[in-house]
Amino acid sequence: PLPKRFYKAASVAPVDNGFAVHLDGKPVRTPGKALLVLPTEAAAALVADEFAAQSETIDPVRMPVMRLVNTAIDGVASDPQAVLEDILRFASSDLTCYRADAPQGLVERQNQHWDPVIDWARTLGARFNLAEGIIHVEQPRVTIAVLGSHLAQRAEPLRLAAIHVMTSLTGSALLALAVDFGEIDAEAAWAAAHVDEDWQIEHWGQDAEAVARRAARKRDMMAAAGLLQALKG
Question: Which residues contact 197 (CB under 8 A, 6 or more apart)?
Answer without folding.
Answer: 214
